[in-house]
Amino acid sequence: MAVERTFSILKPDATERNLTGAINAMIEKAGLRIVAQKRVRITKEQAEQFYSVHKARPFFGELVEFMISAPVVVQVLEGEGAIARYRDVMGATDPSKAADNTIRKTHAKSIGENSVHGSDSPENAAIEIAQFFSGNEIVG
Ligand code: GDP
After folding, report:
1. What distance in Å separates the CA atoms of residue 29 and residue 94, rounded to the nearest whole number?
2. CA of residue 70 to ligand 1 center, whole Å
3. Predicted local distance difference test score (pLDDT) of residue 105
């Protein structure tokens, strides 16, 4: 399987509860390398752009307000099949449906405040990485 990069966000509910290290340990235990990472407060415009695919959904406003409510940690993860692998480690969107030992089962508070984001395709991974990192900030 090819080495890929995926984009990750540790969401406000995770940073607020001081879970950056605990979640990073789960990421690394799954064989993914954190090749770029920074803690930022995203703007409303960035959040709206990032989640624009969900613009028509009833939870869009709530999602944007949540994402700007506290700092987030944005990351680039690298590894074999990193996109699918990270989705596996994250678990289902709704933590009550997530498998045991996944990040969301272990840490998420609700379907909205679900601790992590991970890209769902190579195309979106490339777009999302470019939204937050320049090439020389990613060191594999
Ligand atoms: P993901 O790829 O597993 O993150 O899930 P989606 O792409 O379907 O949704 C993006 C994000 O929107 C999720 O991670 C949640 O933070 C949020 N979200 C999804 N469904 C709901 C919902 O029913 N209610 C609320 N409040 N937020 C939701």
Report:
1. 22
2. 17
3. 98
Instruction: Report the residue count for the chain.
Output: 140
Looking up tokens 């937050």 gives 132
In this prediction the pTM is 0.98
Residue 38's pLDDT is what? Answer: 98
Q: Phi and psi for 53 in degrees, rounded to 5?
A: -60, -25
Both tokens of 108, joined, read 């998420």
DSSP secondary structure string for all residues of 80-122: ETHHHHHHHHH--SSGGGSPTTSHHHHH--SSSS-SEEE-SSH
54 is catalytic: no
Average pLDDT, the chain: 98
Q: Span 30-52, mean pLDDT?
A: 98
Task: Determine the residue of 93, 96, 103 to mutate for testing ligand 1's pocket, defined as the one with the most ligand atoms within 8 A of the Cβ atom.
Answer: 93
Q: Is the pLDDT of residue 1 over 90?
A: no
